[in-house]
Automatic annotation (TrEMBL):
Gene3D superfamilies: Endonuclease/exonuclease/phosphatase
Superkingdom of source: Bacteria
Pfam (any one): Exo_endo_phos
UniProt keywords, alphabetically: Endonuclease, Exonuclease, Hydrolase, Nuclease
Every Endonuclease/exonuclease/phosphatase domain range: 6-189
Name of protein: Endonuclease/exonuclease/phosphatase family metal-dependent hydrolase
Molecular function via GO: endonuclease activity; exonuclease activity
Length: 233
């Protein structure tokens, strides 16, 4: 039995919502791991409306990360973390704080197996991302089961974050650029699986025009296989 997981930075649900809905519905995910979910005034109302436009249900969030699920998918043991972030120098002599960080995850059953899915969005401060990742990995390990970690890392594969993930024993499922959607030239979004978990990336069944209009990032569609994962009690 397989599970389809879509990881997607939806750019605050602020671009072409109709195109975004077409992309997500074409992917037909069982679980959607959202980065840059809409926030500020009416946060939950907006997220529920966004999920409904995809044919999904909004169930959990931390900061601007959210988990949506299809009908018939049940999450257990939802856990979230607020992620500490430092100040960041954005440009010239102007100093600004980053928006709060977070990560959220849960456990699902895939056949007779238990699999955790965790979504995060790392910040803009290069050294700060190392500390953020440590907090995210603590959350991943807390589920005590094989897991998928997906999200926007804000760093390309030659950076220390990716090296740390490899040292953790995770397998990188990606292979192509994810940003920006109109002219993909940077790979800053990732899907990584822990040992004993089987998974692969699937092609995105959407048109280039819809992908460019839907968000500034490209999505990652992951297929997880229950074979070889931890047995349910």
């Amino acid at each position: 039995m397989t599970l389809r997981v879509l990881s997607y930075n939806v750019h605050r649900w602020g671009d072409d919502r109709t195109a975004l809905a077409r992309v997500v519905r074409a992917c037909a995910p069982d679980v959607m791991l959202v980065q840059e979910a809409p926030t500020w005034f009416g946060t939950r109302r907006k997220r529920r409306a966004m999920a409904a436009s995809f044919g999904l249900r909004y169930v959990a969030a931390s900061a601007r990360n959210a988990i949506l699920v299809a009908d018939g998918i049940d999450l257990v043991g939802i856990r979230s973390r607020r992620i500490w972030r430092p100040f960041v120098r954005r440009r010239l002599d102007f100093i600004a704080t980053q928006l709060p960080g977070g990560a959220v995850g849960s456990v699902l059953r895939v056949g007779t197996s238990r699999v955790a899915v965790v979504v995060c969005h790392l910040g803009l401060h290069p050294r700060g991302r190392i500390h953020e990742l440590a907090q995210v990995l603590d959350l991943c390990r807390s589920f005590n089961t094989p897991y998928l970690l997906a999200g926007d890392l804000n760093e390309e594969p030659d950076g220390p974050i990716w090296k740390h993930l490899a040292e953790e024993g995770l397998t990188d499922l990606g292979d192509g650029p994810t940003f920006n959607s109109t002219n993909p030239h940077k790979r800053i979004d990732a899907a990584q699986i822990s040992p004993t978990l089987n998974g692969r990336l699937l092609p995105i069944p959407a048109t280039p025009d819809d992908l460019a209009a839907a968000s500034d990032h490209l999505p990652l569609l992951i297929e997880l296989n229950g074979d070889g994962t931890t047995s349910c009690g």
